Amino acid sequence: MAQRFFEDFVVGDVLRLPERQVQRSDIIAFAAEFDPQPFHLDERAAPTDLTAGLSASGWHTCAMFMRMVCDAYLLDSRCMGSPGIETLKWRRPVRPGDRLTGTSTVLEARASKSRPTIGIVRFRHEVSNQSGDIVMWMENPVMFERRPAR
Known about the structure:
- By secondary structure, the protein is an alpha+beta fold.
- It has a domain at 6-22 and 61-145: Thiol Ester Dehydrase, Chain A (Roll), CATH 3.10.129.10.
- Helices cover 17% and strands 34% of the residues.
- The chain is built from 2 helices and 6 strands.
- Strands 1, 2, 3, 4, 5 and 6 form a 6-stranded antiparallel beta sheet that branches.
- A hairpin with a 5-residue loop joins β5 (118-128) and β6.
- The longest helix is centred in the middle third of the chain and has 15 residues, at 58-72.
- The two termini are 17 Å apart.
- It holds the Pfam family MaoC_dehydratas.
- InterPro entries: HotDog_dom_sf, MaoC-like_dom, MCH/BMMD.
- Residues 13-113 form the MaoC-like domain.
- This is Acyl dehydratase.
């Protein structure tokens, strides 16, 4: 069973994320449960300076991104979780019918000073729509198990 360990992430690597199709029904269902602002629930909601028509919650965009990352490499890794997010920016609205793609770029990889069995990889993630517009970017560290000595 091939799994990525800390040592398999090299600074400069660009990991491609699989495409995710955004469905109107998913936008509304997520918003109804977690972010029931009018512009996430109804196309006819009064427009704001940032929105005109139905748009996904930024948190929904993060959730879709997380699924993309899991499918791309996290589920086939020795991931130990993340201590948090350093930067998160929502750049453009995500709309019904959008096709999201993305990348995770390895910015830094270092062994943990306090836990020798763990390495920390810092990523910059970018999610784009079908027009190539970046809709979200994020930087964060992720902890991975180090490959056991043989």
